[in-house]
Predict the 3D structure of the following.
Amino acid sequence: MENLSETKISKLKRGFLLLAGSLFVCLLPLWTGQYYMQVFTIAFYYVVLASSWNLIAGYTGQFSLAHHAFAAIGGYTSALLVTRSGFPIWMGMFAALLSSTLMGFILGVLCLRMRAIYLAIATWAFAESVRIFISMTYKLTRGDLGLAVPKVFLGTGRAVACYYLFLGLATVTVLLLIIINRSKMGYYLRAIRDDEMVARVMGIHTTRWKIFSFIISSGIAGIAGAFYGHYNGLLTPVMVDFSEMALIVIMVVIGGIRTAAGPIIGAIFIEILTETFRGFGEIRMVVFALAVIAIARLYNEGAVGTVRQFSRWIARRKQPRGDVT
Amino acid sequence: MEKQVNSLLQIENLAKDFGKLRAVDNLSLGLDEGEIRGLIGPNGSGKTTLINLISGVYKPTSGGVYFLGRRIDRLAPERITQEGIMRTFQVARLFGDMTVLENMLIPAFTQGMSRRQSSQRAKELLDFSLLSRMSNEPARNLSGGQGMLLQIVRGFMRHPLRLYLLDEPFAGVHPVIKDVMIETIQKMNREEGVTFLIVSHELTTIRRLCSRISVLHAGQLISEGTMKEVANDPRVIDSYLGG
């Protein structure tokens, strides 16, 4: 009975935190300026990338280093179709979803039988190829000069509109991933991560589910890339720099891998830090990398895991001594 | 490939080489539906390799494995599981980050059982095996014996389960948990007709559970019969004493 009420209190606490967090992000444009709205808009973009990467790396155990490349594939597909072929933006975004999903499928089929370091190397090589391809095909993509992309929402209310657009995208992504994680598919993915051979012996078609999760994750990244392109108005091969992938990894690790809240917290926290310390240049990445090493060594469950541990510690301290057995 | 056979499981001239080492050597063995068969033999005699061959973890070098007359040795492990064959591993291999209950649900989900049905069956099995108290604990928190018990009980989530391959299920397990394991095996054999092939070094437990025993040595089947028969077989005595 006591346990039940404790569970209820814990659920209430979480519900309250969720409500407070949701109210905060929904009402933020009311009391903040354009600059911070832009910071949060980009943070939401990273929430989408970090959460979808968490699906493959965190829940399935596939350490892909090509996630930023799928965002670029989606971004460039939509941008090129809209600028060169006159497609409406929504069709460009749909094409971005298709192209990134298709590339995810191809890469998945080719690489997902590989394990650990080999998978990381193969996906990194793929991402580098995408970057070089974008840089080299100047006539198509304008290479390092960057491709001008038609923007969504023009006019005075643009910052607010984009803020809510990206907030909506991040919310849909996170909800979709929570649903997946709680479905049978979520069980299969976690089983595959824990022990692939046992998962097979339990009847799970591991390759099929790994490819499927890779496709979903790539598709989400592609859509995010397309949104980013039409928000930013310019796409360059910098989008496929390894530092972008490193940033996604850092966000997930600092926030808490294998948790739904981790990538959200990590992405918002790191994006705000990145903007705050922009004046320090690339040294920020060194600081973030050191933070990742420290977290991997000391609190490998990230911020979310550490908060959970702390809550459990508080709960134990509150317990009367006689109850401790 | 279909084949007219009377046994539930028929292994014919099976061989498995690892480089120059022949782990299973031209082995033939039949298993009848509903029996609990013991598989014994000295270390390195090929018992676990045989389990790996039947469950699809290894592909044979030659020979065949037939289940209900259908050849299964070329199927992937997940396909073999769908035929109604489950297995355990020598060291309990659980999904450590998942709870005990979640571990139980996976084999039920893979055969399309609903969440409600799966939870109901999991609850019954966990109650019977005295693990229900640990339902919401991460599996990594279980002791060695509890982990082994969960590994066995998890396999019963597949329904119908036709053949269960248990690899050293009693090794290093506390006697109380061992008794629960034995009761569970007997109950599932009696009530659901599950056939067992049990690899074990624990001859007392094998004697208690199994009506027939097969003995392997150097990858070959050297004796088969009741415990009394194999215990008196000079080839078995030789193989165990290194003669």
About this structure: Chain B has a mean pLDDT of 92. The CA atoms of residues 230 and 236 of chain B lie 7 Å apart. The interface with chain A takes residues 55, 57, 76-78, 81-82, 86-87, 89, 93-98, 102, 105-107, 109-111, 115, 154, 158 of chain B (CB under 8 Å). The two ends of chain B are 41 Å apart (CA to CA).
